[in-house]
Amino acid sequence: MVWGVQAGEVLVSQELLRKLRKRIETLTLERDAAIACAASEKRWADEAKEVIEGLLHQFAYDGPGPTLSTGGLSALEDGFALLDWQDPHPIPESRCDEPGCIERNTCGWPSPSGYRRTCSNHWIEAER
Ligand SMILES: [Zn+2]
Prior knowledge:
alpha+beta; binds zinc ion
């Protein structure tokens, strides 16, 4: 008998019990491997996204606002699509410190009131 029911109790042979334990162990290992694989894929995707974002900040075209634009280049369009960015993509964190100015900050410099990041126009004005 491999298994059976006797007086309301399920009876299982030692051999079946050993096979069940082995199967549970295999399923547990497969589950753990799948979890580790998913975590690894997520880490890789996060790193790839960070690299692509850095490349787009470096090579995409500057626009007003400030924004980044593909300029119609397919490689940049692919990068924008991977990050789910609209074209143009707003980058408010790169805006000139000067109140009311919508240009991109391209200059960092110490001022009497602290470190500032401004557009080239406001950096030149500060030098005068
Ligand atoms: Zn400015």
